[in-house]
Amino acid sequence: MTLSAGSRIGLAGAAVVGVAFGMARYAYGLTLPDIRQELELSEPVLGLVAGATFAGYLAGLLLAGPLAVRRGSRAPTTVGGACGAVGAVIVTVAQLPWLLAVGAVLAGSAGGWVWASYSDIVTRTVSAPQRPGALAIITTGTSGGLVVLAGLAVLAIPGSWRVVWAGIALAAVAAAVVNLRLVPRTGPKPRPGQRRGTSPLVTTLGIPAAYSVVYFAAVVIYFTYAADVLTRDLPAAAVPALYAVIGVTGMVGVATGAVAQRLGSPRVAALCLVTVAAALALLGLAGDSMIATAVSACVFGPGYMIGSAVLAVWTAELVPERAGAAFTGCLIVGAVSSVAAPVVAGAVIPELGLGTLLVLTAAVSLISGVALLPHRARRGGTAAETEP
Fold this sequence. Notes:
By secondary structure, this protein is mostly helical. The chain contains 15 helices and no strands. It folds into 2 domains: 1-188, Growth Hormone, Chain: A (Up-down Bundle), CATH 1.20.1250; 201-381, Up-down Bundle (Growth Hormone, Chain: A), CATH 1.20.1250.20.
C-alpha cells in the first residue's frame, strides 16, 4: 500500500518530534536526581544547565527559519536530528559538568530546530485537506516519545541514568534516517517579503500568542511539580509511570486535525486550557491521593497533546503562506513563558505553598479557556490553502 504525502511526512515528523521533543527535551529533568548523585553537582550548577537547555531550544527556534530560507524546509529537521543524537551521546559519556552541559544544550536544541519546520514542510508539500491531520500526527509524536522515555527510565532504575541517554541517541539516529527517506527535499524557502498579500503576523496571531503564554506556563508548572508531588510518598517507578500515562492518553492528539475542523481551532484550544486546569486543580487539592494523581495524569495527557497540536493547526490556518514563521513566533512566546513560569513559582511557593500555586495556575488556565471559547475560527485567504 502506497502512503499519501501527508501520511509519509506525518510519520517521519512524528518520529523526529517524538525524539526531539518527547525524549531529549524532558530527559534532563527525568534523570536529574541520578545525575546529581553520580556527578556530585551542586544545585546552582544543575539549575544553570537546565536553563541552558531552554536557551538551546530558543536558539534552535530562531536559527531554523534562516536555515530554511537558504537550504529548504527539510534542512532544519536534519540539523535537529543530528543535534539530538550528538547531544545525547555527549551526555551519555559525560564525566565533567561542562561536558554534560554541552550535551544537554545540544539535545535540548533539537526541539527548536524541528517542530516549527514541519509546518512549512506540510504547507509546501501536502494538499490542503490533509494538512490538519498531518500536523496533528507530527505533534502527537511527543506522546510516543514520552512513552519510550518512560520505558528507558524503568530500564535505568536498576542500572544507570546513562541508559536513558544512550537510548535517546539511538532513537535520534533512527528518526533522522526515516526523515531523510520519507520527507522530500524542498527548495530554499521564499523570504517573507517575496509573497504578496501576507498578513502581518503580529496582528494576525494575537490570540494564538496569548493562548501560548497561558498554555505553556500551565504545562511547565505541571511537569515541574507533578513529579515532586509523586516522589513524596511513592516509589521511584512512579515518575516514569506518570510520563507513560501522559504519553499514552496524549495519543488522542492524532485526532486534533479532525476535531479542529469540526469545532474550530480556538474552541479546541479553549477546551485544552480547561482540561489542563482540571489536571492542575486535582494535583493542588488532592495531591496526596494516588487515585487523584492518576486521574490528573489521564486528564493532562489529552489536554497537553491536543493543546500543542492545535497550535500548529491554528497558525497554519491563519497564515498558510507563512505557517512555519507563525508557529515559530507562538513557540518563542511560549518558550519565554516557560522560562518565566518556574521563576515566578519558585518565588511564591515559600509564601503560598505548592498546593495553592497549583490551584492558582489552574484558575488562570480555566479563566483563559472560558475567555477564549467565544472566538471563532478564521482562516487565511491565500492560494496556499488549496494548492500543495
